[in-house]
Amino acid sequence: MRYQDTIARALATPGGHLAIGRGGFTLHYDDSRLSGYDCDTIKQEAIEAGLPVIDSRPVPYAVLARLAVEGPMVAVNRPAHPEPWHAFSDAPLAVVATAYRQVGADIHNIADDPRAHAWFAGRPTTPLDQLVDGWLDYVLGPLVAHEAARGDSQ
Question: CA-CA distance, 110 to 30, in Å (whole number)?
């Protein structure tokens, strides 16, 4: 097992987890991160070891961008901020993972947290939301069109 020692450290870290996206993986542990491109190998090892895994590769870019811009970050090796969570706050791993699961990410070894569902349901439409929508349309419009032309969302 190539990543066994680092995965063990992540398992011992509050909020430790493996995040996988189109740009590779990041293993969050202690106050450190290990990044790389051997996604399938580390994902299999992490799942077998019981480490929480968030694989966002199946999620469309526009949805990921929205979560990244508006959603909270995972509190790794530090306490989560109190609710309500927003783009500049740290939330419990299960809340963030549930949000990603809700939009189609491949999630392993993390139970749902109903507080994430409440976050989605309580999203108001504000001028900031409109600004973010406009920015994402501008930035991601060509990419979304390209995805539609290819017939996939990866």
Answer: 19
Q: What is the pTM of this model?
A: 0.82
Do 120 and 99 form a contact (C-beta atoms < 8 A)?
Answer: yes
* ω into 142 cis (within 30 of 0): no
Query: In 10 A of CB 78, how many CB atoms?
Result: 11
- What's the CA gap between 61 and 144, in Å, rounded? 7
- Each residue's pLDDT tens digit, 9-39: 999 999 999 999 999 999 999 999 999 999 9
Instruction: Report yes or no: 141 and 134 within 8 Å, Cβ to Cβ.
Output: no
The 10 Å Cβ neighbour count of residue 47 is: 17
